[in-house]
Amino acid sequence: MGRGVWYALLLFGLLTIGVGVFFIIEPHETLKVFTVIAGIFLLVDGVLALIGAIVGAGESRGLLAIVGVLGVLAGLVLIKKPFGALTVFVLVLGIWLVVAGVARFVYAFTVPTGRGRLIASALIDAIAGIVILSWPKPSLATIAVIIGIALVLRGALFVYAAYRLLRLESSASGPGTPLPA
């Protein structure tokens, strides 16, 4: 298998842990940076779609042009107002949780079994949505910290996988046999 696989896993795991730590330590700044990166991606994608609409052939050029304009506009908004765009995202998430919670609560009374579980799930969704709508900026930080924790845990799993792969290679090459470079 060679040294490259476990080494790549180790490097990716350490990089993932590092990004996760940044999310935890500086949640607002990290989210802004990732929002700007997403904005740049959307801007480039939109420009490429517009170029495709101009030089391409076919009936879908108009649709491609619409996608391009929307991509450019969304990209510019994310680049110019990253925190505002994130706040809108969090507000949409909060509204969705409240609406989904109410819908699930009503639905719970239409089923013959499992009503308690559905009601509990509905209440959790609705309460989470109300909390997010009440405090959108702290909710952003909370989401960033949760993402950070998930990245740190995922990175630790990659590091562990690299360690296990190295041990497997070591045992496969036999005792006293050096690992291939």
Identify the quaternary structure here.
Answer: single chain
Distance separating the two termini:
11 Å
Mean of pLDDT:
86
Helix content: over 70%
- Give the DSSP E fraction (strand runs of 2 or more residues): under 5%
Shape: extended
Rg: 24 Å
How many discrete structural domains? Answer: 1
Main sheet, how many strands, which sense, barrel? none
The ordered H/E elements are HHHHHH
Briefly note the structural class of the backbone.
mainly alpha
Could you name the ranges where pLDDT drops below 50 across 5 or more consecutive residues?
none
How many beta-strand segments? 0
How many helices? The count is: 6
Task: Describe the model.
There is one protein chain. The chain is an all-alpha fold and 181 residues long. The chain has one domain. The protein is built from six helices and no strands. The chain is extended. The mean pLDDT is 86.
Which features would summarize this protein structure in a list?
181 residues; 86% helix
